Amino acid sequence: MENVKHEKWSSGFIFLLAAVGSAVGLGNIWRFPYVVAENGGGAFVLLYLGIVILLGIPLLMTELSIGRMTGKAPINAFDQMVKENDVKAKPLWTALGWSYMLVPLGILCFYFVVAGWTLNYVTGMVMGDFNGITAEGAQESFGAMLGNWKTLIFWMTITLLITIGIVSQGIKEGLEKAVKILMPALFVIMVALVIYSSVTGEFLESVKFMFTPDFSKITGKTIMMAAGQAFFSLSLGSAAMMMYGAYLTKDISIPKMACGVALADTSVAILAGFMIFPIVFAHGMANASGPGLVFEVLPVIFTDMPMGQLFGVLFFLLLAFAAVTSTISLLEPMVALLEEKGYKRLPSAFIVGGGVWLIGVICALSLNVLQDVRLLGGVEALKDKNIMDIVEYFAANVFVPLNGLFVAIFIGWMVKRSTMIDEFNMGDNIVFKAWKFLVCYIVPIVMIAVFYDAAIGF
Ligand code: TRP
């Protein structure tokens, strides 16, 4: 059944909601602030912005257009483009297609574990479990949650079931309906929280922290972290954007959409900084960072702020909504591929989801029962990482940038110039030339430098 036609988005705006929903997630609100804090603030933010503009937007345009030109999931998409453009080294590009398909599943395996934490915190906040909690208390309670595999598995299973439920309904009945509710809700909550936080917290100090660059803090590793974070945040290097592109109709401008997604995603990441740092600084807890930043620090702060409980509930609800609009795009591509192979959506969603659940459970157990297991204990840079960290590291920091590198080479060097000019529908103008230059030279050179540096680190 090679010729299965997928449903299309109802409009460009709905596509934007869905694509921004995929991009905006735990990566923006949970990961970005602590990665910024760990990598020295302003310099990292500047680097991040540079990477989004010079590498992120061109790659977004690339992935969306590969999806739309073929209307298929990555493996079939690459196969078709290899044929149409007479590209050599077919097995390499088939492998790239597989890598594109598997990365989102790898991400999903640890992502829905964390998404489960957010739901657990929503209920905790609603029940008032954190009222009057101290810093030690909050750390203990985060630790206790991680130590309790039953709680973890319960909440991650709920998250995954919601995801499967939405994806199993298809594009118009499932994904579109979900993002039409979740994205406006996310926007309203976010604006309320930023205002709340900058009025009650240390706004100016946060501006200084996020935008005063200390370039001595930039090393090869920082660049790799920034690239990894930017690609992760834009949902690049994974099948998600290609798949969402496959549902786009021809009348919509891909360059415009790519800029819209990048702008919205980056704004949310920066706003997340302005939501979190002002209250963190106001409470002198600037040293707390790492994955626990929002889970250990914010509950303490919310308890002694006016209407803290309400805003606490809203904050974790925001995280949960942002997470679910991302998990659906992580599950969707494999389900769509199975559809192309002739399988029905509903059973596919459950079967793929079931596989992800199993690995996700191992990730969750690596936070408690299996916490001392070091799969790659022999590798210096990875010797402290548990199973979940390793899954995250390889999916987000290795394979995502690697896919970005190869897709740039593919589209820049293998695919005909005229094919892409047609696809972007804007002629051989300056925007096209800039895009072409970036994907042909800048993306590969930066990515190879990043990998070279990372490899030396081992
Ligand atoms: N962009 C998502 C976030 O910031 C995470 C993510 C990475 C993702 N790759 C993806 C989501 C692919 C969907 C598809 O949280």
- The tally of beta strands, per DSSP, is 0
- Gap from first CA to last CA: 45 Å
Largest sheet: number of strands, sense, barrel closure:
none
What are the distinct ligands in this entry?
A: tryptophan
The assigned structural class equals mainly alpha
- Separate helix tally: 18
Classify the oligomer.
single chain
- C-alpha Rg, in Å? 21 Å
- Average the pLDDT over all residues and give the rounded result: 91
Q: Which architecture per CATH?
A: Orthogonal Bundle
Commentary on this structure:
The protein is mostly helical. It has one domain: Hydantoin permease. Helices cover 78% and strands 0% of the residues. It is built from 18 helices and no strands. Helix 5 packs across helix 15 (345-365). 51% of the residues are buried. The model has no long low-confidence stretch (mean pLDDT 91). The structure holds tryptophan. The site of tryptophan has 16 residues, from helix 1, helix 2, helix 5, helix 10 and helix 14.
